[in-house]
Amino acid sequence: MSSHPSRRDLLRLVGAAAAVPVLSSCAGAPATQSAAPGTFTVYWNAGHDYAAYRKVIAEFEQANKVTVNLQKYQWPDLRTRLLADFASGTVPDLVEEPGGWVQEFAVSGNARSLQDYVDRDGQAMGFPSDWQPVTVERNSYQGKVYGVQLHLTCNTLLYNKAMLRDAGVEAPTTWEELLDAAKKLTKDGVYGIALNQDYTYMWPWLVQAGITPYDLDTKAIMEPRADAVAALQFQADLIHQHKVAPVPVSSTDYSGPQKLFSAKRAAMILTGPWDLEPIRKTSADIELGVAPPLKNKTAATQAAGVSMFVPAKAARPDLSWDFIKRITALEVEQAATKETGMLMPRKSWVDLPEVQSDPVTKVFAEALPTAKDSSQQVRLTGQLGKWEEQLKVMYQQVLIQNQPAAEALDAFVKAAEGFLR
Amino acid sequence: MGTRKWLLYALLGLAGLVTVVPLLYMLSLSLQTEAETLSANAVLVPESPQWGNYAELFTRAPFGNFIVNSLIVAGVITLAHLLFDPLVGYVFAKFRFPLRNTLFVALLATLMVPFFVRMIPLYVLMANMGWLNTYQGLITPFLMDAFGIFLMRQFIQPIPDDLINAARIDGASELRIYRSVILPQTRPALAVLGLFTFVFQWNEFLWPLVATTTAEMRTIPVGLTLFNQEYFTLWHLTAAGSVILFVPTAVLFVCTQRYFVRGIALTGLK
Amino acid sequence: MRSRTLYGRYARTAYLFLLPAILFFAAFFYLPIGNVVATSFRTGPMADQWAGLGNYTQALADPAVRHSFLVTVGFSAMVVAGSIVIGLALALAIDQPLRGRVVFRVLLLVPYLTSVAIVGLLWRNILDPELGVLNRALGAIGLPEQQWLNTAPLLTIAAVTLWQSVGYTMVLFLAGLQGIPETYHEAARIDGADAWHRFWRITLPLLAPTTLFVSVMAVISGLQAFGQAYIITNGGPGDATDLSVFHIFNVAFRTRDFGYSSAQSVLLLMVIVAFTVVQLRAGRRGEVTY
User: Fold this and answer.
1) Do residue B265 and residue C249 have CB atoms under 8 angstroms apart?
2) pTM
């Protein structure tokens, strides 16, 4: 057992302790965590360990004569780790991120620009021409590409066909129709709709209302303001005034509405493709309907989904890039979709038979071009963390605590003006 | 008298129920099918117990490694505490030396800083040492702590000075006095210290999360996060892992519990 | 007393015995804490720009910091009061000559052996108003359903904290009770004092040192509570359960402002030290030496 440090280790410890400077100023030379030359370290989400990706990894290992150390985490844990790595200078070779971190770490200098590789290989692999434009924009900073989108998801309306049929309503296409349908569907312990406790689920509503969250040039926040207030109040009213939706409960998971839907206690939910698998697993008998995003001022939705980037201090960016190229190939996207139903960022993916023949995936795929990134302008200021923190508070104050939307939004804008200055 | 006794039983029974029922629910979750755990109409008793959930832990992840790692890390740290904390506590209880009170206050102050605040500098230190992803990296930062030293000091203080002085007159060395006069009297307190230290380290999450870089080196609490998907939790597996996590601390507790009240009663609190 | 040389020899022995501990605490506590203090004067995502006292002045003026501090004080007050009242009540009950009291002692302490994370997930699951087991059970016996995580979130996470830790407090009080010589009670009984008077006049005063220890430890851990907000409520609804340490964690690892989070940690450290010193002063008559 190597757990007892030898005396030499202790001496080294004292030496190293004396040498630890302030947080930042350590580790000059690029140091990859898997200092062992044969290991290639990848941080990955624990939910994305697909067989399709395992196959790519095996091929990558063989081609490059390395062993891939796939470290799987939940997003908050992955972030905690990564920030510790950035502080110490021992970084992984490649990181999967939940959306938004690429620009954040490009701004802070922790992500490596991939523009040289894109210039070299872009044409052959179809980047950026074959990627949905929103995915390229959200992974670029000052005209350079820093990350490549792996999955592209969006949020739309799922409904229980039998319930709608019984209530004699069509799948809603506008907010008014949604409210009307929800009222008719709410009865006998069934809610017409269930909303999420997580603030990111407000974005589809806000983009449908034509809101620009933040404008870097004019510094306007949440404008047009009256429409933003109306969009938030509409959601709160579904819960507190019309009582066609349950009060959400603040927590760290997003599965509340899905569970109500699976239990046939909610007729409609607004969500992304990630909820399909649990619904099919728990309640295969539900006739699942998927409708395009709702229309208010426009028909639109929020872009989400994960990307990959290479830390600035990663020692073998050539290998990291090779990994990115392999795992974003169209055949891999196709295999992953077949395996899990996940949505993908390539334009040519939309035309695949797997996508076009699946009535559920098809609706999502057709919504992707209307998907917008909701926090890009804020990310570029480097203040995303504070922005999200305040948004979370504001969203829950309105939806859960029934504070008037105008009041809560005013307080939010005032706080945001402070740190976005 | 009779009714009063019944009232007491009712009160304690209710309290016992409130503490035990949620834990039984965890056990129930660990034996449900995935569909049962995901279903919105929470299932209280599984239709047929899924003992296979426990086996699945080991096929989905290197859970055997997690258990071994947890045992090594928490075990060695507990032994280290049993070795160091009484010695340091003894010095603070029975020796007079310059700066004694200052040092003791400085020691207590370390209890008042949340761990994650120290975590990044500690991580940088360990990275510079090349100790990431090693047992020594997981263990070394926790070899002693102020709580254990405080506990032992409180316990050793009431031991009469005469015992120590008599041994000194007999010509015993200081280390010998500690070993054969002090330590034998501290057994109940050591049981308490050992249990607390083990429970605390066994459940530790943040440090093993950042200090390990391969799945094979993870401990159980960190390994359990593998059973969360991006947007939902695999409850049946998480609960099964939690039950496994719970067993060793419970066994240790049942073994030490008779020392428990006595151990604390003697720590000089009275 | 002892001669100077003897004193010197003992002092040397003491330091010899202390040497490993001093080195250990220097490397793993004081150096990192010093690092945190140094970081608190810096700013930027890599904490590499000098900020002077900027983080401190910002923290003192920040309404979110003030709010989270008030939330933390409220939470700690509930946990400390609950620990003492419930812990003492259970200890008094279990101190009676009852059959099977060992079983109760074990049962009540069992939650303390489980991790805060698991306890949090478990209760989050149980308390969910739409999907949780509790409302199903309440509905089945005809009681109204609860929405505690929305209507009284801070009280609810304080209650969960108590659920986990009150057994530990009970054991401490039990130990204290067993240290009170029976003769005091005998004397009072002969004087004709009833049980109520005996409790207030004898038991409680003689328990003062235990009560002090319990409250000091409860305040220290209450002010540093974190897992309850991190696992159960995510600080919500709104910012209703935004406990200080949870807030500081988010400033560090979500907002990535290590300078600002370090400054807030230093301020919190000062508050906890102040609380502890005041408590120890107030309870000086008790024998918990400091």
Assistant:
1) no
2) 0.90
Domain boundaries, chain C: 63-282
Judge whether C45 and A108 are in contact, CB under 8 Å.
Answer: yes
Residues of A in contact with C241 (CB under 8 A): 250
Average pLDDT over chain A, rounded to whole? Answer: 90
The pLDDT, as a whole number, for residue B40 is: 61
Beta carbons of A242 and A407 less than 8 angstroms apart: no
**Which CATH code fits A154-303+383-420?**
3.40.190.10
CATH code linked to domain C63-282: 1.10.3720.10
pLDDT at A33: 53
Residue of chain C with shortest Cα separation from B141: C28
Q: Which residues of C touch B261 (CB under 8 A)?
A: 105, 171, 174-175, 178
**Would you say residue C75 has pLDDT above 70?**
yes
B149/C21 Cβ within 8 A: yes
SS3 string of C273-288? Answer: HHHHHHHHHHCCCCCC
In SS3 terms, B154-186 reads as HHHCCCCHHHHHHHHHCCCCHHHHHHHHHHHHH
Please list the alpha-helical segments (H only) found in A89-114. 101-107
Classified as helix, coil or strand, B65 is helix
* Cross-chain residue pair B105–C107, CB shorter than 8 Å: no
- The answer to whether the beta carbons of residues A224 and A172 sit under 8 Å apart is no
Does B269 contact C96 at a Cβ distance shorter than 8 Å? no
Shortest Cα distance, chain A CAs vs residue B44, angstroms? 16
Q: Give the separation between CA C253 and CA C266, rounded to whole angstroms.
A: 17
Amino acid at B84: F
Q: How far is A7 from chain B (nearest CA, A)?
A: 13
Over its C-alpha atoms, chain A yields an Rg (Å, rounded) of 23
Question: Does the distance separating the beta carbons of C130 and A256 come in below 8 Å?
Answer: yes
Binary contact (C132, B42; C-beta < 8 A): yes
For CATH 3.40.190.10, list the domain ranges present in chain A. Answer: 32-152+305-372, 154-303+383-420
Flag if A2 and B135 touch (Cβ within 8 Å).
yes
Task: Let me know: does C18 contact B91? Beta carbons within 8 Å.
Answer: yes
B window 232-261, beta carbon within 8 A of A: 232-233
A157 forms beta bridges with: A270, A291
Q: For residue A69, give how far its alpha carbon lies from the nearest alpha carbon of chain B (Å).
A: 7
Judge whether A195 and A261 are in contact, CB under 8 Å.
no
- What's the rounded Cα separation, in Å, for the pair A164 and A216? 43
Q: Which fold has domain B60-265?
A: MetI-like fold (1.10.3720)
A254 CB neighbours in chain B (<8 A) are: 231-232
What average pLDDT does range A217-246 have in this prediction? 96
Within 335-394 of A, beta carbons closer than 8 Å to B belong to none
Of A47, A81, A281, the CB nearest to B35: A281
* CA dist list (Å): C150 to A66, A249, C240: 51, 6, 9
Which of A383-387, B27-31, C95-99 shows the lowest per-residue confidence on average (mean pLDDT)?
A: C95-99
Fold observed for domain A32-152+305-372: D-Maltodextrin-Binding Protein; domain 2 (3.40.190)
**A 273-302 near B (Cβ less than 8 A):** 274-275, 278, 281-283
State the CB neighbour count (10 A cutoff) for residue C194. 9
